[in-house]
Design goal:
Layout (H helix, E strand, L loop, with lengths): L2 H10 L7 H39 L5 E5 L5 E2 L2 H8 L4 E16 L2 E10 L3 H4 L6 E4 L4 E2 L2 E7 H7 L10 E6 L13 E12 L3 H6 E5 H8 L4 E2 L1 E6 L5 H12 L3 E5 L5 H39 L1 H9 L4 H37 L20 H35 L1
Parallel strand pairs: 4-10, 7-9
Antiparallel strand pairs: 1-12, 1-13, 2-11, 3-4, 3-8, 3-12, 5-9, 6-7, 7-10, 8-9
Helix pairs in contact: 1-11, 2-9, 2-11, 2-12, 9-11, 9-12, 10-12, 11-12
GO cellular component, one term: plasma membrane protein complex
Protein name: Lipoprotein-releasing system permease protein
Membrane topology: Multi-pass membrane protein
Amino acid sequence: MNFPFFIARKYFLSGKKKNFINVISIISMVVVSIGTMCLIIALSVFNGLEGLLRSMYGNFDPDIVITPTYGKSFESNSDHLAKIRSVDGILGVSEVIEDNVLVEYKESQRLVRMKGVSRDFDKYSGIKNVMVAGEFPLVRDSIGYALIGRGVQYDLSLSLKNDFYTLQMYYPKDIAPGVVNPSRMYNLLNIIPGGIFAIEKYYDDNYVFVPVEFAKDLLNYGNKLTSYDVYLQEDRDPATVKKQIQANLGEQFKVKLGEELHSDLYKVLKIEKLFVFLILVAIIGIASINIFFSLTMLVIEKKKDISILFAQGASTKLIRNIFLYEGSIVAFSGAGVGLILGISLSLLQQHFGLVGMGMDTAVINSYPVKIEVTDILLTVIAVILITILASIQPAIKASKSFSTQTLQ
């Protein structure tokens, strides 16, 4: 066994556990343990939230979105679709028209974000997984239906069981001078509510899906579209496919990954995760001050023992390592317990949902967690660095002071 570690372990497991030094060491272990546990749990929750957002948005967003570089619409043609579908790994392409419209149901009105999609949307989109009422297909028996966000449904007091009322959609026309008849200032089309979806508050409160043919008629778009939604095969790398599509279409189109539509949100989550990590590491660092003081006082208490070791020929390196090992034992014992508790509680939350979100939601009822190996490694590395910084100064000072006394 490593001799310095043997001595350090003897000091740590000494039967004299009621002195002040041992109390400080125990407090250090407890604080490091709690800090490490909180660090693992907090990082796991942020991982879970990011994964939850990606899964929720994945039910709504395509893998790749293609929009015009200039303006909000473009003339669609078969050449565009051929260039997109020529890329290996394309599962499907949906033509999209998206704009703000006014909707009316009975006597209730509000603005919504209408998204007209082609029938391929039924095959590739994950929105069918978040339907809470009604049926999913947008077109059934050649009749177009609207899929409505749950928030929009609440605002309009919309009922799928009432077949006597349709959803009326209004969109302003390009008004020429001299037009005084209000009915000529807007387009009006009716559509039957077909289903209700619940994804996330922003989408639930704003979006309505309709067939792209309906959207073209309402907006008088003719052959124009606002974007293409591209869906990929599961084994394809979206970034690689994106580059190939961009090369095929040229600079007149912007090609974005679906997750890039929410890049700001993901950045905020990563920044919050970083700050939480730094704050909890700082707490562990403050706890390590106790390790510094306990080692300093241990040096004073074991002055006679260390003098004997020096007299028997012990080197300054050996004395220094004794106290470095002592500090490491205190810190790693606390960190080890903290890791076990943090991982255990995270796994319990992941499988049994011990802590709820505190609100009714169709998406998830408890806080999501996801344990990542990189977070555990970062935590361990942080504890190691803090331990070394807290222990090295008392250890060096002890070895130097005793070596000086021995020489004298």
